[in-house]
């Protein structure tokens, strides 16, 4: 093999790795998908200072903060209107938040958490409270003055300023500019449900954008209120709500390339722990959100969370995929809806992760999803796993052997999770923290996922379950409405090979 | 079970109930869907003072006013152009309305009715009379000066100012602002046939918006002039006309969440009494419009209405669902189009109603629709009935027992209806009135639906036909092209239970 | 039956008839669909003064003028650019039109014909000649100064000013206003291929609008360049060209209600005589265009037209349907694509015609279309024929008996047509003329279709072939890729009945 | 046969030939589709002066320049930002391009090649480098000052200025105007992936426009990131990337008529030589791009190209079709997806080429494409081949006999191609050059394709393999995922016939 071919390949790999040069949005935040908690899925409008403070204490106590769940986000229904005698600034509901929002923010900050709030790019919020349309500067300044670190910005009652990318982007850009002008770094999370193709314009305005209607706690039930399905679902002008998790996962399959450091496809807040799905379904749900590089916002009532659900949310090996420093979404390599084994689709998703071997070959995440009503054996060939790499059909990686690591094998036992919950204080046994990536804020034992991966932590890499040979394939029995999730690593012998 | 779990649940239920905080549109009208009569379906352009006055007399005489049918709405074709020597104000047709419109309005007001008129957000009305585009302030002032209480505002000949939410909403907002500026409360009813997604912007402009092309008096016949069907019908840029009632009901299934007090999905005026459908079909039609919280505008010739049709329109138990103070549209829980039992779809719709038991559990309306060409037995499980409640698949309500009440069981007999018609003067035996809700105008024996429901009136609650056990289901034989409609109420033993 | 019911019915019928009150577009032209000839389909850019003059002579000589074919329209490719030293006015090609356009117009006027020309709402015409975008006033004045009576206005090279109704309508309105400002009545024919829903805004701007891509001389062959088919074809953002006649007829089925006096759906110029279809197909084609109230522009080379084709184009009974004074398009009552009798669809179209009986009941046109590859017997029930009349399923007309008249039975014999062609001078045996409707210009023996129909001319009414009984149906053997076309007239006994 | 019929036919043929009168875009470039090389498909961001110079040398050395591959285009990732102290002009990356871009351009010019560069109509390029939105004049001047001859202009990070033809065309027009204002002829190549229908507005702004998402080196694999397929693919608002070559070919089938001299549908850069497809697939790929009149930009690493791939890219007979002076895209005459012979579609494409016989009949290119998984025998009837000619079904050409020439028969042997590569210097045995057409720049032995075709060069006309008789058809065995490509020429006896 000629040297020039080798040089070209090396250069190509380097070039791909260097594709992202500057920040998408200028605020420097969300270099990996944001993590945290939001009250909506479990509480809707039933919000209060007490809820936030209790939740924050438990986020710390259960070790979730130290895993990266950093933002405590208050959703809709917190306001009591505007103060006409004070520049029409927003007023917190004095019953729900008797000490005001600054005090809540301060409580969060004391716990080394961050505080998120909510408003709406319309006349009203979805809950019919005051919206920020026309009040962007005032409200951005108010949020900054309260010490807010995060804004979820919704789309209800938008007065018809929609139906076109230019109109919608302008409406959202106005608030983004206002937030930037405050000087305070505030993570900006668009909640326009995928209307008007936010993946085309969101990345220069904000840190994430919802790309579908609201999630509902179910696997795949069709609901007319979330009407877009299948291969045509990329063009959904009525995003709706009550969307199943497979519906959302299907919709993101079309736009995975839009995710990048600083700017993410938001698949909506997690339902893990809300009781509507089986354990296998929740495992699949968390795995899906992880590989698609969605923000991971816990949507359950932390105060009553079940041990088995905590043991999903605190799986550092799965979180490490989501928080991988390369910041590239996995993509769907195939989906089959054959009638074999009954109705339901099976899918393969794979994606690049930063190499943890010190060689030139990226690690790879592999997610097999079984939508059938029974457990089946599924296959993923190396050709399919690496089908995104040129040349198609003959990727070099398919001719290598790979170590296979099961990312769910080390899931915390229910007993241990129950003990943590019972003690109301976790042992913080997982010394990795997503938020350390951008900030280096923790001067304790916490390590960023990037550093943890670099140091080959087996906590983050999962359990070795075997090897896949060159041109081989991975077989796995996948439970009904479930998933298996693997990390592939180049075997030592292959790490520095020049060519195949 | 822990107290905190119970507290959270209580809080959640309360939060849902308090979601709606402020008026969608500011005029304070239509807190429940408007009710009344409109001449178009039966008379089209054949309008006159005589028609309106005769109809108004019979609306009162047949007891319909006292049921809530309050607005007498004159549709298109009433004008004789503009008066160039008087600021281009609109001139009523002197032959059709020799005394002018103020006199007609006054006639209505004397009868404790309200008067509605019609114009168009275009150069011409659909009937090619003068439109209001560019004359909004003048015309709003004219309507107010005549004592008009309601404006239906159409979409013909709009000069191309459409095709985008921003453009259409601006065109309709102009008239809304002009109406508000008159100082007279005028219910504002958009008639843009669902073009440019009015459910996204209508609620901050108006009290209702048409969400489909014009109704035609038929069950389900396809007509190319109303081309959108099935699961893709949510995105219909050619609304057309000659839409069957099942076509419209399908279209509203996608957007039921947009209905709220003060702002309703308008499914178009009723066809009950116009002769195109069977009695079973009309019963289903009225039931559908009721649960979807459509405005209920009678579209028949009241002067020649048949007794069996009157006995549909005056069913207080069904109207009470439409006028329920919670103001939440039912939603479609499932639709099956299997070939079993022949062609045609079967559907289940359910929705929350304000509790009439004094406990914490909402009542529930259940509508089973049979589109098959023969009577069949249908089933609705509690799981499906309450599938909208979190957690999905395990709603607490499914583990309770419920009283089942048939809302059509107490339908007035044809004999009695015939007697009322013959006397040309109803006995006003139903002392409930929708309009009392917003205004408390009646100081007589009439009671609002809200108060009637609160007082447990069996007239409004329907006839008890049995009980459904926890985890059980409701079975009913549903006629061909027909429906059954039930109200579920928590049994006394369950009314105040904390948990299940 | 009560008198009031009868009165209501009478009123209803009268109301329908009086629906159209004012002109859609203000120029007073095209009260029935325009008729004439256009060179494009047969000659494309191969135009010259000689072609137009020879054609005009034969239009008169073959009796076509006296049937209403009045406009001789010159399509694209006539220009030699703009005259920079004369206000950038358009210059006719001096080789093709050595005497200039005024001379051509005068030639047409001398023959009692009218002269149409062509331009484009873009930078170039479709043939890459100078377009009128930005030159509207100049060009309108030029056309008026030349004595032009008709402008076909195309859509090529529109610089992106499209994709929205507001943008496109503005572009076309500019020329419409400029034409009106000249003071010369110029029929304005939009040729934007149905882009941006011209049926929504065309009627207040122009006299007709193309509603599909360009026609091609074939029955139903799919061509990717005209990609929209079937029930979804109403929403075609790529109108394309090479559209088959059944493709276009399908597309107009969705918007038939938009046709009205002064403003017509334009199905594109006729292909009759261009050799691509069979005689049966051309008969169906001409019948379709007639009932849909399309402008009838002959698209063949008149100088070489075959006798059998002339005998299609000069069928006064079919033209009388197109030129019926009521001006209402027929609609598709059903279309079946069952596999019975092989592939291909069968269709029924019916529509109201002004009564020719002196009674209150409209005449009715019935068109049965057979898209199968073999002749089949078809049925049209009175219920279906009158299904557009309320109440649906029980129209009064279905309970009457009707005279059935075959509109193709009196088609001119090939021998006679050949003789006319040979003589190069028709005998003008058909003394009816569409253009007399609007203008009363002919003081000879010609009579308008309206007057001819009023006088019960059997030439216009077709041949009586039988009677259809109340609740009955019409059976006909329809040839492969063909049509039968009937006029129904109320039988004398039923003409003045009050009710049924 | 009458003389007038003959005259009309002659006139018609002449008229068609003269349809294109003026330049679509005013810069006079790309009268035939541009040819050249672009680094993206093989190298992505791994660019350098060295790469371009080495490639340019080999383009000359392998004889590719003399075949017409003229433009060496540098894609994304070349910039180091803007120079704030020099009017914010763009700065080349000093490591990748140490001598600056002028030097590179000069290197190209010395080799009689032209130099292309890349920017983006957005805030960033797709690789997150500085975009030109808002800097159009500055950047156009910079490119001109560097001696750039070609600009590829991308669509990433466009800030939401999209979603409508008017908005997108304005964004692209701004740069086009800026390029024209420089006075330097710069070929302008839009890369907006078909968004907002650039075929409607691109031709008055630019020389070509991408009409699909990015190509991927595969035959037909579905990828959710390129979601539009089949008959509905004409309306793809999410162009995506990873589009297979058959996906792109399908998409262009709808808009073939938009291609014309100076303004071309761009099917994206070639994958020939990148290793993802079989030899048969690459032959089909190059044939497809040729007949669709796509720009032909080599996308492989020229320095490592395989002999068999060079022997595809240097097939002058196929290039001559692409560079035919008539400049008319072939169209798809049929596509069948029957299950016969297994899954996969078969297609026939044909198109007019300028006559090479001296007679009045155009040559015709015929491309048969086999998407099945096995070789099959395919048929193309003369009726289908000429189905685009009026009258449909009876084209005169179907009644003639035609010489059939195989355009791949004379493909260079692998041995010869290997020898050229080994010598690193081709013998330039093909004395035809596409670029001579527009410029006559070569005063050597090179001849333009137009002149070569006129002189009947067998190199350009392919190998005679037989004759097809009147009303006959062509049979060919087409390999799996492959194509055969023929040129039809009128036989001498038919060349000057008047009629048939």
The separation of the N and C termini of chain A measures 10 Å
Structural class of chain A: alpha/beta
Main sheet characteristics of chain A:
8 strands, parallel
DSSP summary, beta strand count of chain A: 18
CATH superfamily of the largest domain in chain A: Aldolase class I
Query: For the record, what CATH class of the largest domain in chain A applies?
Result: Alpha Beta
Oligomer: homotetramer
CATH architecture of the largest domain in chain A: Alpha-Beta Barrel
Percent of residues of chain A in beta strands?
Answer: 15-25%
Rg of chain A (C-alpha, Å): 22 Å
Query: What proportion of the residues of chain A is helical, as a percent range?
Result: 25-40%
Question: Count of helical segments of chain A?
Answer: 16
| Integer average pLDDT of chain A | 89
Q: Taking strands numbered 1, 2, ... along the chain, how are they ordered across the largest sheet of chain A?
A: 9-8-7-6-5-2-1-10
Report the principal-axis shape of chain A.
globular
Low-pLDDT windows of residues of chain A? 1-23, 426-430, 434-444
The CATH topology of the largest domain in chain A comes to TIM Barrel
* Largest contact between chains: A-B, 40 and 47 residues
Total domains of chain A, how many?
Answer: 2
Task: Give the topology.
Four copies of one chain form a homotetramer.
Chain A (H helix, E strand, L loop, with lengths): L2 H15 L17 E4 L1 H4 L5 H13 L9 E3 L5 E5 L5 E4 L8 H10 L3 E7 L15 H11 L3 E5 L10 H18 L4 E4 L7 H4 L6 E3 L34 H9 L10 E3 L12 H13 L4 E3 L8 H7 L2 H7 L8 E6 L9 E8 L9 E8 L5 E6 H4 L16 E5 L7 H10 L12 H4 L9 H6 L3 H4 L1 E6 L4 E6 L3 E9 L10
Helix pairs in contact in A: 5-6, 9-10, 9-11, 10-13
